Amino acid sequence: MCYRRISHRTHHQNHGNVEKDESWVPLPEKVFKNLDYSTKFLRYKIPFPMFAYPLYLWRRSPGKTGSHFNPNSDLFQPSERKYVMTSTICWSLMVVLLLSLSTIFGPFQMLKVYGVPYLVFVMWLDVVTYLHHHGHEQKLPWYRGKEWSYLRGGLTTVDQDYGLFNNIHHDIGTHVIHHLFPQIPHYNLQEATRAAKPVLGKYYREPRKSGPIPFHLVGNLVRSINRDHYVSDNGEVVYYQTDQNLSGSFIKKKGE
């Protein structure tokens, strides 16, 4: 998907920037407070955030405008619009193909062979990309204005140990060095991380070691989503704050 490649490049160029980042970017307090109940529920209650990827492609995050499928979106430069249009046409043709196959084989069969694997892919993608920038025991800063720099933003990313999935997915846990030097190929990321640790010193946060299955990351994920809700509208160095209503129960809507 050409459009996702472009927005991912934007993410790498602006990592850790509250206004300009493009991946699991924190919501300013004003935007957060104006969210309706259903949006808060779907965004901050497990497992719903782990299926956000298709919605993000369609309409981005709250407070941002545009769509990955619209070549005129402010996500893209004028020179990129033809590539986005090509991707959107291909995506549309794929939807037509899936609908056609559903009439031949039946919707239940298509759900089994395509729908369920797609949902597993979406869930894994959202979990991994979220934990690349959240889930550390200590709250990490986000930046605005003159306080932001490429280096400071890159150091807010988080390395994780994904157990046996490290090798299956090209050492995805070595995310800090990947953000600082995205030109390094995946097969050199572990070596580059080992070389960078003495240089980064206290600014490198060693990930907790995992067994074959990274069960500990479930706790990291739940803890972060329960506490990391929004950042202040003011200040150039900000940290996630917690809405106490969200960290507790969703039994009652706000105001009831």
TrEMBL record:
<dbReference type="InterPro" id="IPR012171">
    <property type="entry name" value="Fatty_acid_desaturase"/>
</dbReference>
<protein>
    <submittedName>
        <fullName>OLC1v1006246C1</fullName>
    </submittedName>
</protein>
<comment type="similarity">
    <text>Belongs to the fatty acid desaturase type 1 family.</text>
</comment>
<dbReference type="GO" id="GO:0016491">
    <property type="term" value="F:oxidoreductase activity"/>
</dbReference>
<keyword id="KW-0560">Oxidoreductase</keyword>
<dbReference type="Pfam" id="PF00487">
    <property type="entry name" value="FA_desaturase"/>
</dbReference>
<keyword id="KW-0812">Transmembrane</keyword>
<dbReference type="GO" id="GO:0006629">
    <property type="term" value="P:lipid metabolic process"/>
</dbReference>
<keyword id="KW-1133">Transmembrane helix</keyword>
<keyword id="KW-0472">Membrane</keyword>
<dbReference type="GO" id="GO:0016020">
    <property type="term" value="C:membrane"/>
</dbReference>
<dbReference type="InterPro" id="IPR005804">
    <property type="entry name" value="FA_desaturase_dom"/>
</dbReference>
<feature type="transmembrane region" description="Helical">
    <location>
        <begin position="83"/>
        <end position="105"/>
    </location>
</feature>
<feature type="domain" description="Fatty acid desaturase">
    <location>
        <begin position="4"/>
        <end position="205"/>
    </location>
</feature>
